[in-house]
Amino acid sequence: MTTLYLASGSPRRRELLAQIGVPFVSLMTSVDETPLPDETPAAYVERLARAKAAAGLATLGADEQAVVLGADTTVVLDGRILGKPASREECIAMLQSLGGREHEVLTAVALASVQHSEARTVSSRVGFRPVDAVEAGAYWDTGEPADKAGGYAIQGFAAVFVRHLQGSYSAVVGLPLCETAHLLTEFGIPFWQPK
Ligand SMILES: Cc1cn([C@H]2C[C@H](O)[C@@H](COP(=O)(O)OP(=O)(O)OP(=O)(O)O)O2)c(=O)[nH]c1=O
């Protein structure tokens, strides 16, 4: 019987996958998240999602029954990749740069088995109201932004910054569930639907 593994340390991804009623086993993997020179944001997120799935598969040896899911989420502003803020100052600068305008959130999901691998990338647009430095600093102090791409969590306190979202809410949180369900079906893994 096929077993689905989630190669992710993200609690959001665990919750999102559980939401669509798929049994899975969590795996911890680590991949280098440095962008390659001249790599586009779309190429970057897909490469990382595939790398996370491949790294997970490698830890399982040659298990013919395993399918591994990896994903990556990146915030893109003016073509620039915004990663996770490393400091309070960086987070304040990031949130102020996102304030009063729209940015793109790219999330890729990849499934890999010994036989083959597939990936899908979803682009969403998020519009923020202006965010001043005092509020951005206070938001950093909540502890929420540190492990989030772009320094914010739409599902958390940062919801107060979000004027609009065009695209996939689950993708912004970390896993595009519509596309994930489609890929799972391709790999013969049922979600909540009757078998
Ligand atoms: C924009 C945004 C990102 N995020 C999160 C999703 C991801 O967990 C994180 C982006 O970092 P990722 O590198 O995609 O994922 P991760 O390091 O948390 O987990 P792993 O690589 O082990 O799967 O930012 C939110 O939770 N809410 C948001 O609104």
Automatic annotation (TrEMBL):
Pfam families: Maf. The active site is at D72 (proton acceptor). SUPFAM superfamilies: ITPase-like. It is found in: Cytoplasm. The record marks R12, T73, Q155 as: Important for substrate specificity. Its cofactor is a divalent metal cation. It comes from the Bacteria. GO terms for molecular function: hydrolase activity. CDD domains: Maf. It catalyses: UTP + H2O = UMP + diphosphate + H(+); dTTP + H2O = dTMP + diphosphate + H(+). Its EC number is 3.6.1.9. Keywords: Cytoplasm, Hydrolase, Nucleotide metabolism. Belongs to the Maf family. YhdE subfamily. Nucleoside triphosphate pyrophosphatase that hydrolyzes dTTP and UTP. May have a dual role in cell division arrest and in preventing the incorporation of modified nucleotides into cellular nucleic acids. This is dTTP/UTP pyrophosphatase. It comes from Azotobacter bryophylli. The lineage of its organism: Bacteria, Pseudomonadati, Pseudomonadota, Gammaproteobacteria, Pseudomonadales.
